[in-house]
Write a structure and sequence with these properties.
By secondary structure, the protein is mainly α. The protein has a domain of 125 residues: 3-Layer(aba) Sandwich (Rossmann fold). Helices cover 59% and strands 6% of the residues. It contains 11 helices and 4 strands; from the N terminus they run H-H-H-E-H-H-E-H-H-H-H-E-H-E-H. Strands 1-2 form a two-stranded parallel sheet. Strands 3-4 form a two-stranded parallel ribbon. Helix 7 runs antiparallel to helix 9 and helix 9 packs across helix 10. It is globular. One of its GO terms (molecular function) is hydrolase activity.
């Protein structure tokens, strides 16, 4: 989007052509820092309809979870959201933080913490190998379609962290991932949900490509 923005309004005159990429990365870093500070501030209100959405779900007996380890600086931002939701409402919500993720069965399996005391070590190793082999098979199948060479171990740490968090969330609310719905606001969340078969609703926070195309 920034590339389209500067292509449209013009680039800084003093910026060499070969430095556009590094310039964009720098702008994105500063934007992210400012957004993180703003998101965690008391002055930022909740998105309109959030309280009603949560209340409606709870009234229908649908469990709701807030994943505080979902993204970068998620704990800080989520604390602000939880405070704004109010104690009475959050008392009915599952708050999934770092500790909850690590204590979840899937978290223990993937992170390798505390599993030996509750599961046979050999079984765990075999399960890990089977899961890794299956992920590698799927990755290679997709790669063959795209004519790419893929190593599953090259998957981003951020994506794996989100997947572990999503699975931990489904475990705490007592539902299979296929029966949970992620309300996501980022592409990384959407991709992680897609990888594990979790339905996902995207909350737009900026113009879509179709919006931009309509304006050009």
């Amino acid at each position: 989007m920034l590339l389209l923005f500067f292509n449209r309004i013009g680039w800084p005159t003093s910026l060499p052509t070969n430095e556009k990429e590094s310039f964009i990365k720098g702008v994105l870093r500063e934007k992210l820092k400012a957004l993180e500070v703003f998101s965690a501030s008391d002055s930022l209100p909740l998105r309109p309809g959030v309280e009603k959405f949560i209340d409606d779900a709870l009234n229908e007996g649908v469990p709701v979870a807030i994943l505080t380890t979902y993204g970068r600086n998620g704990e800080k931002t989520s604390r602000s959201i939880i405070e704004k939701l109010g104690q009475e409402r959050t008392a009915k919500i599952h708050i999934i933080g770092k500790e909850e993720v690590e204590k979840s069965l899937y978290g223990q399996l993937v992170l390798g913490e505390g599993v030996a005391s509750s599961l046979d070590e050999q079984l765990v190793r075999e399960a890990q190998k089977a899961a890794s082999a299956e992920k590698q098979r799927i990755a290679e199948e997709v790669a063959s379609i795209l004519k790419l060479s893929v190593d599953i171990n090259a998957a981003s740490e951020s994506s794996e962290k989100i997947i572990v968090t999503l699975r931990a969330g489904s475990e705490y609310v007592g539902r299979d991932v296929q029966n949970c719905i992620l309300v996501a606001g980022s592409q990384s969340g959407v991709l992680a949900a897609e990888r594990i078969g979790m339905p996902c609703i995207v909350v737009r926070s900026r113009p879509s490509w179709m919006d931009l195309a309509a304006q050009t």
